[in-house]
Amino acid sequence: MSELLAEGLFLMLFGMGTVAAFLTILVLTTKGMSALLIRFGFANIEPQGIAPHPVAQPAKNDPQNEELVAVITAAIQQFRSRHK
Description:
Low-confidence stretches: none
Strand content: under 5%
Distance between the termini: 55 Å
Number of strands: 0
Largest sheet: none
Number of helices: 2
Mean pLDDT: 86
Oligomer: single chain
Order of helices and strands: HH
Structural class: mainly alpha
Helix content: 55-70%
């Protein structure tokens, strides 16, 4: 039984070591690539062709908007009164 437990412990440590080594290599590679991009001036390039879209603002005194707010408020109050 102890031999099986030792083998399981070895496999666990081997797997965790493999994952830790891979993640360390991944972080170092990413940092290295970032340093290269900064060194050669590619870090401050903005993407082309992407324009911000303006956000439509609802009308302030729209009666339909006021009715919608009243309906939502009533629904929230009803939900809260049922789930106390």
